[in-house]
Specification:
Layout lengths: L1 E2 L3 E3 L4 E3 L5 E4 L4 E4 L2 E4 L6 E5 L8 E4 L4 E5 L1 E4 L3 E5 L4 E5 L2 E3 L3 E5 L4 E5 L2 E3 L5 E3 L2 E5 L2 E3 L6 E3 L4 E5 L2 E3 L8 E3 L6 E5 L2 E3 L3 E5 L4 E5 L2 E5 L1 E5 L8 E4 L2 E4 L6 E3 L6 E4 L7 E2 L3 E4 L13
Length: about 290
């Protein structure tokens, strides 16, 4: 099936993608979901493939009041693969997003959940101003900045692998005035410049994470003066002779507890308690 131009799923309308469907779209095509777009348990994956040259104004946009719930649908070559606007809700499971300029874009008030997805061949950066809850995500930033959140953003990653193709560009980035709220559990982050770059962060809770082969585990350049953050039972092993984490700016209470951080700290203001002298077991994706 071929779609020659942009199309809209109207409010009150449900469109289902059949298992195994192969849909091609023009380089300028946008699918706007005001109603509902579904694909259930596509054991035989369906696919949406944009023509070469698709820019950021293409892909799937879930508008306010719209619902996306697709399982087993691969998205290839889109500009912004999943663009969730304020008031929109999207669930993307067990599919692969390939060669997107922005794999994910979530506006304030929008929500994206994803389970078992893969992102690869990335051409740019994901921007989260709403909420993302990811489980079992394998995200390759391919040398670009990874996933950026700002004020009011909530980002949660569990049992995931977040990585690049060398110790360049940062993976989870918090910015703005107050920063994002970030939760990471049983997740592996590797082959990027910084696993976490906070400038600033609202608060962070990290546990059983495995950070390795990055130039830095953390750059902590500001956090909520009352909330701060914690990392517990995790490994933070840098590469290239750099530090496990670098601290600057104004930070709230930050505690690293039962962590293995053999490469040291640049800066002050972090409490290191019950430091481990050997790699912590049970970290990373399970």
């Amino acid at each position: 099936m071929a779609i020659a131009g942009s199309t809209t799923i109207a409010a009150g309308t449900t469109v289902a993608v059949a298992a195994g469907a192969k849909i091609t779209l023009a380089a300028s095509a946008m699918i706007t979901v005001n109603g509902t777009l579904l694909a259930s348990d596509c054991a035989t994956h369906a696919s949406l493939t944009w023509a070469a040259g698709a820019g950021q104004g293409t892909g799937i946009t879930v508008a306010s009041g719209g619902t996306l719930k697709i399982d087993g649908v691969d998205i290839m070559g889109a500009g912004t693969a999943l663009n969730v606007q304020g008031g929109g809700s999207a669930e993307y499971d067990d599919g692969t997003i390939t060669s997107a300029v922005a794999p994910f874009q979530v506006a304030s008030g929008g929500t994206l959940t994803t389970n078992g997805a893969t992102v690869t061949g990335t051409r740019g950066t994901s921007s989260i101003n709403g909420t993302i809850v990811a489980t079992g995500l394998d995200y390759n930033s391919d040398g670009n900045s990874g996933i950026v959140g700002t004020d009011g953003t909530t980002m949660s990653f569990t049992n995931s692998k977040l990585h690049g193709n060398g110790p360049t560009a940062d993976m989870l980035i918090s910015g703005g005035v107050a920063g994002a709220t970030i939760t990471v559990k049983n997740t592996e982050i590797y082959m990027v410049h910084c696993a976490f770059h906070f400038q600033p962060v609202n608060t962070f809770t990290i546990s059983y994470a495995n950070l390795h082969d990055n130039a830095f585990g953390f750059m902590l350049y500001g956090s909520s003066p009352t909330l701060g953050g914690t990392m517990a039972y995790s490994n933070d092993v840098a590469t290239s002779g750099e530090f496990g984490f670098s601290v600057a700016g104004t930070n709230g209470p930050i505690t690293f507890d039962h962590d293995y951080i053999p490469d040291g700290v640049a800066g002050q203001g972090v409490a290191i308690t019950n430091a481990s002298t050997t790699s912590v077991s049970g970290t990373g994706a399970m």
